[in-house]
Amino acid sequence: MTFKPSIKEVELVDRNLEKEIYQFVVTMQHQTKCRVVFTKDTHDQLTISELSRLPNVPCPICRNDYTCHCLSRFKDTLEREILARNLIPTA
């Protein structure tokens, strides 16, 4: 079975407007939660600098209930979806 991440809910949990850093907790359709940190890159574009799965449910890819890095493979997909849905506030 192919895993396709789909964002259900995004909650802004922290932000630093001076340094333009935004931290979100993203809930996906299968109830997996992950922490996503956006920062500005060298081209002044917001990109995901950190992505980590929160251990509320086992990983939907490897089914481990401890720390894994499986969702890192979908960093670009999640970034595009968050930016396309305009979920990062502008100040």
Describe the structure.
The structure is a single chain. The protein is mainly beta and 91 residues long. The chain has one domain (7-84). Helices cover 11% and strands 38% of the residues. The chain has one helix at residues 75-84, and strands at 7-16, 21-28, 33-40, 46-54. Strands 1-2-3-4 form a four-stranded antiparallel beta sheet, covered by helices on one side. The chain is globular and about 40 Å long. The mean pLDDT is 87.
In short:
This protein has 91 residues and is mainly β. The chain is 11% helix and 38% strand. It has one domain (7-84).
Index terms:
mainly beta
Q: How many beta-strand elements?
A: 4
What share of the residues does DSSP label as strand, in percent? 35-45%
Order of helices and strands: EEEEH
Shape summary: globular
Gyration radius from CA atoms, angstroms? 13 Å
Output the structural class: mainly beta
Tell me the span between the first and last alpha carbons. Answer: 41 Å
Q: Treating each run of at least 4 consecutive H or I residues as one helix, how many helices?
A: 1
Largest beta-sheet characterization: 4 strands, antiparallel
Q: Taking all residues together, what is the mean pLDDT?
A: 87
Low-confidence stretches: none
Oligomer: single chain
Number of domain units: 1
Helix content: 10-25%
Strand order of the largest sheet: 1-2-3-4
Task: Present the secondary structure layout.
Blueprint: E1 7-16, E2 21-28, E3 33-40, E4 46-54, H1 75-84
Antiparallel strand pairs: 1-2, 2-3, 3-4
